[in-house]
């Protein structure tokens, strides 16, 4: 390709991008969903939170199934002012007690509702909330109502497999992570600092 043709192609591309940027004038918080069976949903959410904190934004995080095991994201972000509320029971498949898991979910959900009503928070992460809805620990309608009534400028990030279609419908941005290959399938143990 000649240099002139390359420049013409790049100029056309620039004009398309510039037109799309000029057309995007709405300023508001958005609802982002990271879902799918692939690795990286929580990592994507906390990468976005790290970016927000780096720009002086205020962030809150709710983690529904992480329990009390070591948490690198929390170790980094909590000292920078990010409030974390973590469901104490951890993985629901470990506890195998629906009543206890539901109570723990509803307890941490109270913090989520508080954060979703707090106009001083620029971003709220609802990590692994999709499981809480899927397992009927948390009523879908309550989640949808809290999302709809949040402050206009607040961005919310939802993570977890099998996100309910009604949440996907109201989301502004949805990314589905698809597994191609995972070290765990080859017998590699989850590693601190890499997997958690």
UniProtKB/TrEMBL annotation:
It is an enzyme of class 2 (transferase). Its EC number is 2.5.1.17. InterPro entries: CblAdoTrfase_CobA, P-loop_NTPase. Pathway: Cofactor biosynthesis; adenosylcobalamin biosynthesis; adenosylcobalamin from cob(II)yrinate a,c-diamide: step 2/7. GO terms for biological process: cobalamin biosynthetic process; porphyrin-containing compound biosynthetic process. Keywords: ATP-binding, Cobalamin biosynthesis, Cytoplasm, Nucleotide-binding, Porphyrin biosynthesis, Transferase. It is found in: Cytoplasm. It catalyses: 2 cob(II)yrinate a,c diamide + reduced [electron-transfer flavoprotein] + 2 ATP = 2 adenosylcob(III)yrinate a,c-diamide + 2 triphosphate + oxidized [electron-transfer flavoprotein] + 3 H(+); 2 cob(II)alamin + reduced [electron-transfer flavoprotein] + 2 ATP = 2 adenosylcob(III)alamin + 2 triphosphate + oxidized [electron-transfer flavoprotein] + 3 H(+). It comes from the Bacteria. GO terms for molecular function: ATP binding; corrinoid adenosyltransferase activity. One of its GO terms (cellular component) is cytoplasm. The keyword ATP-binding applies. Required for both de novo synthesis of the corrin ring for the assimilation of exogenous corrinoids. Participates in the adenosylation of a variety of incomplete and complete corrinoids. Belongs to the Cob(I)alamin adenosyltransferase family. This is Corrinoid adenosyltransferase. The gene is cobO.
